[in-house]
Amino acid sequence: MAEPTPDLTPEPLERLGRFGDFGGRFVPEALIPALEELDEARHKAMVDPEFLGELERLHRTYTGRPSIITEVPRFAEHAGGARVILKREDLNHTGSHKINNVLAQALLTKRMGKTRVIAETGAGQHGVATATAAALMGLECVVYMGKVDTERQALNVARMRMLGAEVVAVPTGSATLKDAINEALRDWVANVGHTHYILGTVTGPHPFPEMVRDFHRIIGVEARSQVLDLTGRLPDAVIACVGGGSNAMGIFHRFIDDPDVRLIGVEAGGEGIESGRHAARFASADPGVLHGTFSYLMQDDDGQTLETHSVSAGLDYPSVGPEHSHLRDTGRAEYRYATDDKAMEAFRLLCRTEGIIPALESSHALAGAIEVGRELGPDALLLVNLSGRGDKDMHTAAEWFGLIDGEAVPEGRAEEPRATGDGRTQL
Amino acid sequence: MTADVTTGPGVESVFARCREEGRAALVCYLPVGFPSVEGSVRAMVAMVEAGADIIEVGIPYTDPVMDGPTVAYAADQALKRGVHVRDVFTATQAVRDAGAPPLVMTYWNLVLRYGVPTFARDLKAAGGAGLITPDLIPDEAADWIGASDETGLDRVFLVAPSSTDQRLAAVTRQCRGFVYAVSHMGVTGARESLGDAAKVIVERTKAVTELPVCVGVGVSGGAQAAEIAAYADGVIVGSALVRCLTEATDEEAGLTALRSLVGELADGVRSGS
């Protein structure tokens, strides 16, 4: 503590990490030194051939990158006959795009000399990825998960524990993703000396939104050249689901400077906007501060955070990454929503037409693709980020569609989807 | 810029008086709305009568990341019972009428939603002394710095053991009223031992500012208050007071326990130097 001659020149106060008006650093002062350390470490790492080489090697030999693209013509019959191509992040090790960011942040953790990582998780995909990276690199790992989510994603809880992570069920508040982040932030403040918080999406205080985006940017970089190789042209639209928004930022970013490519994010419409039980921030919310960032936020008249709802735990979050808010307000990206019903229809449709079981989160992007394809017609080329696989969602799907012997089939959900002559689907 | 010592809304006159009396100030926290709005106001007034110099009036928030289980529980209960942000003004007026300056402790989104200049104006009109902002750093506070300069309200930012000397200098330069030094790394909550970290952060902060430095997070009783009063200008107590109310069998028992603890703490801040 006893610096001989401390330099007391105050650092200039500046608003860091802004995307237009959005973003920033709304956190307790206690975390500022850790955020500055992280910011410095990632800037150095991103120009360090050793770091970049190690990350590239891990992605090639462990993650399974580059992930392939798959054209899905039988699914596309239900999307107005448009040409639909999936970017297969579901085929990554651990089953989603989350591993891209986690491996990079785990490498950074080691470079910063820290020995313990913590993470929040909603659907469990980010928690599983973090537990995986911690096992791979010999780091202690604690994952915070809302109690409601531990129940609906029990399989992922078991996976994390199998990998050696401690899983803490958070019972406070709505007991979902936002409450898991609160608890992770509390842990981080208390243990910041030896702990890195591997935040799993493009939100939180600077530098997380920018850093997590950069670690996922590889999705769009690969997909853009793969689609060009396959079709000789750029897609008309790139479509991704948006909870916090990391898979969407990852696939959008390389296309931002391609003005003819529409960027379309699909939020969770839950039981419909009018029901109030949804997580469609852009359809109903005003900007506010949550978890260290200024962005669109579902809040009441007092500024208290509202509870959200989605059939998909990974999209069940009241705020959204600040760069999405900026892309939305500037008009560079557009956002729509898919209800639980539409997402589940798209989920079943991809299973039945292509033999691919998507995550419920990614099923929202597929529902968006069905809609956009019908709007644009058969000449359109759509690139959809299939951000994760649906093995973890079998319990939810089995209940939804009545797939368990002896259980009643919920009304209206048991019919087979079939394509009609005009390219529309009857479900 | 600085509010007038005798007529300004801020806490400067409290520290002047404490200096004359050769003691530290006692800053006592309770959230508005627990057990009810009226009950919390009665409890705050009781704390003034029992010897609190400054009341820190908390506004319950759905996502209190700086707070431990005790304060978070009371805030959650208050929200379930329907407390609103505007209820804080009822509390600040009552505290001011009882003779102590009320500082409002609030997470930033509540003020942002209300409108920063409007909140400042309404707070001043309701006898408020200023704001303590646990999740707002001066770097992000341009609106609030402007609004507090216009109204003369105090603005209390936090410093922590992890703060670099440069951060300490930058943050304290934007404070008015006092500087809130977090005693250790972690959330709010009573602790048996504070160790040396609190003393070190106070000394490091005093090296860069003339403002009073108060220590918060973890103080639970009179002996700790006396220990901190020996080197700090003020002692901030929160969770231990909230616990008087959450653990009480009824409201009267809560107030009795609260008066007793505040009395013990008031003795503590007078025996520290």
UniProtKB/TrEMBL annotation, chain A:
Pathway: Amino-acid biosynthesis; L-tryptophan biosynthesis; L-tryptophan from chorismate: step 5/5. This is Tryptophan synthase beta chain. It comes from Knoellia koreensis. Tetramer of two alpha and two beta chains. Its cofactor is pyridoxal 5'-phosphate. GO terms for molecular function: tryptophan synthase activity. One of its GO terms (cellular component) is cytoplasm. The beta subunit is responsible for the synthesis of L-tryptophan from indole and L-serine. Gene3D superfamilies: 3.40.50.1100. It comes from the Bacteria. Its EC number is 4.2.1.20. Residues 410-421 have a biased composition (Basic and acidic residues).
UniProtKB/TrEMBL annotation, chain B:
Pfam families: Trp_syntA (PF00290). GO terms for cellular component: cytosol. Gene3D superfamilies: Aldolase class I (3.20.20.70). GO terms for molecular function: tryptophan synthase activity. CDD domains: Tryptophan_synthase_alpha. The active site is at 56 (proton acceptor), 67 (proton acceptor). This is Tryptophan synthase alpha chain.
